[in-house]
Amino acid sequence: MRTVNTSLKSTTKCSPYRWACRRETNLEQGSILVLTAMSIVFIMISAALCLDIGYIILAEGQLQNAAEAASLAGAAELIDEGILYGDVSFEDDITFARNNAESIAFQNKAANRSLALHRNDENLPDGGIVVGYIEDPSDPTSPLLTDNPAYYNSVQVETSLTHDVNGPLGLFFSAFAGTGTVQISKRATATIDDRIIGFALSDGPYGEESLMMLPFTILYDTWVEGMDGDDHPLDCPCPHEPDVDDYTYDPVTGAVSPGSDGIPEMKLYPNKDGVCGQEDLPGNFGTIDIGPSNNSTDDIRRQIIYGISQADLDAIGGLLMTDEGGGNFSQWLEGDTGVSTTVRFELDDIIGQPRLIALYRTAINNGDNAEYKIVKFAGVRVMDVNMTGALQNRNVVVQPCTITCNSGIIHPDAPHSGLVYAMALTR
User: Fold this and answer.
1) CB 302 within 8 A of CB 390
2) What is this structure's pTM?
3) For residue 335, which of 54, 174, 303, 418 sits 20 to 30 Å off, Cα-Cα?
């Protein structure tokens, strides 16, 4: 019987066929190389797409920022200070709006290039700069109308990287796929509106916002009569009133100097007790309480310099006129008994600076019990201060001015103020 030595049996499956084993190994290695190459190509394509997408998103953000800045700059030019001189020119305002929008857009960059705009002097609805009127800015469906320049309150700006404007956006790696450029555009609309019925403060970039309003008030009828007057719009005929136009405001330096600038002045304080025929009106000649009813002189001094705080507004339940119907809005505010002469230092400090004031139509009661029915807001700047001597010799002289307040609350049924504007991005 033969004995078989199994310990010498080969366990190599393909050892008798070494050429076949080598061929199988080579095929596997070749497949791995192909897969690796394909993966690298796929990864490179993905990376290229990601870079291009990121670049497009970055450029779109830059275009949007430029469109918003340019539209706000353009809308600001629609505020016509010619109303103060009785000389309103819509065409000049529209031209200035386009100029300012172009200037601000060019100062912004997208894809590392300064941005030009399609000026669109024809004011076509699909142009780069469109100036028009939005009846209700809070309604996104309210259209931008261009048929009546007298009502224009909005500027729409389109910033583009296209073949027609600024050139298309060049891509990094997608050029290898035959898509070397892409055209992108962004649009923004800013609106100014003077149909303000109140104010709502919010936190700004530098902390809590303030409302730059003086705690004084003027009779609405006196204001309207002055603004509508023929020769001297805000003149008051009392012998101790300031002259019609004794002061000049320099918009470049912000300085106030003697002489005429064509804008008449009026007395902010005192405006009662024999002044301008208001001696028979109830109420008082002091300030209004925009804050706690026990406002101190320190509170008034703070408000003159720094404005009205949120805590002040909370104390009166907010500064917001309610609709009485027929386009009439009002809010009752309490009055103070008088003004300390020590506030002259704070008033001196703000000479030439724009401030808000409230206009009242009706006053009831006297002293601490006085109440004023506020019906409108106006813009003024303090031109001269004299708080010494007898009451009839004291003066806080102001002239009307335009003022922009981003915290203004707009109501489409409210009357236009012509002086106080809210400005915001509305589209």
Assistant:
1) no
2) 0.75
3) 418
